[in-house]
Amino acid sequence: MTDQPTFEAQYVEKRSRLTTFFRYILAIPHFIVLYVWGIAVGIAVIVAWFALLFTGRYPQALYDFAAGFLRYSTAVYAYITFLTDRYPPFSGDTDNYPVQIRVPPPKAEYNRVKVLFRIILAIPVLIIVYAMQVVYSVGLFIAWFAIVILGKQPKGLQDMIVLGVSYQQRAYAYLMLLTEDWPPFLDQQGAALGGGDGGTGLPPAPTTQAPPAAPEAPGQRGSLSGGDPLNG
User: Is residue 134 part of a domain?
Assistant: First the structure.
């Protein structure tokens, strides 16, 4: 069983011009909650680091607190990066939200060496996170104009933003010690859960099969074989 979280995002082409235009003003209350909750989670992760180092186990209460913040921050990032128009909830309960990260339960025991050197091991991950933030920032900048002008979110821009936000949030899970292995560059498991569409949560396109052959008309088989069954 993998301890990697999975990112899922539903794609809806038609979007609200009005809420997109004022998106960052509407998100101000969430910025405040995100900041305060983030400080508390930072303290909780430090406590969890010591617990993991000495016991090899992540205290369940601390794990749930950090995982709830990760789910909440994912919903907020999805809203401010135009992955969805739905206003996010002020909690980590995002089961019904169109964009979410699914966090598995804690492992029975964690590798203490990986916990001890997490800051050093996380350096390559942080570099990729920075690159991904550049990627989705470009995507959301273009998407803002596309939605405000056309009222639609182009699928290519959606996928571009999903790529960046997905890696960022799965990397945050690694930094918060929720998982002990580097996040994969592409969330293949999330893509599988999402129906094979890059983790977008959409079902795969139906396959097209050729219709069954029409039944042969009387006498057709004989004519094809070079003879008339009635005339021998």
Answer: yes
pLDDT higher than threshold 80 for residue 224: no
Phi, psi at residue 157, to the nearest 5°? -70, -40
Both tokens assigned to 112: 């203490």
With a cut of 90, say whether residue 42 has pLDDT above it. Answer: yes
CB 28 within 8 A of CB 219: no
Q: What are phi and psi of 122, to 5 degrees?
A: -80, -10
The answer to the question of residue 99 being in a domain is yes
Residue 21, domain member (yes or no):
yes
- Residue 37: the pLDDT is 97
67 belongs to a structural domain? yes
User: If you average pLDDT over every residue of the chain, what do you get?
Assistant: 85
71 phi and psi angles, rounded to 5 deg: -65, -40
Yes or no: say if 52 and 177 are a contact pair by the CB < 8 Å rule.
yes
Segment 134-157 mean pLDDT: 96
As for how many domains the chain has, the answer is 1
